[in-house]
Amino acid sequence: MTIESKVQKVYWAPTRGRRYLNKWSAVRAEARAIIRKHCPDVKPCRCTPGYCGMCGDPGWSLDIDEPLRYSRYMRLLTNALMVTMK
Ligand SMILES: [Zn+2]
User: Fold this and answer.
1) 10 Å Cβ neighbour count for 77?
2) Ligand 1 centre from 40 Cα, in Å?
3) How close is the Cα of 65 to the center of ligand 1, in Å?
4) Phi, psi of 38 (to 5 degrees)
5) Which pTM value belongs to this model?
6) What is the largest CA-CA distance in the chain?
7) What would the DSSP string read from start to end of 10-63?
8) How confident is the prediction along the chain (86 residues), in pLDDT tens digits per residue?
9) Cα(48)–Cα(56) distance, rounded to whole angstroms?
10) By the 8 A CB rule, do 31 and 77 touch?
11) Rounded Cα distance, 4 and 28, in Å
């Protein structure tokens, strides 16, 4: 077996801060990262009686709590990212 040095095309997703070998993985990861940046998750409350009186705040996440909005953003962003890809 011989080691070969190869040049391979990679796709850089700047918001996600990672490179991908697959175009679609890069586009999806970048779209998810952009959505997370604009609509960040709200962590659920770690309720204790002394801290919040057991408010029961379950937190919030776009993909879980507003799946239709999330899928619409994903569709728009993945399309835009595909069109503007260099
Ligand atoms: Zn609480």
Assistant:
1) 19
2) 19
3) 19
4) -80, -30
5) 0.82
6) 66
7) -EEETTTTEEESSHHHHHHHHHHHHHHHHS--BPPP---HHHHSS-----B-HH
8) 999 999 999 999 999 999 999 999 999 999 999 999 999 999 999 999 999 999 999 999 999 999 999 999 999 999 999 999 98
9) 10
10) yes
11) 31
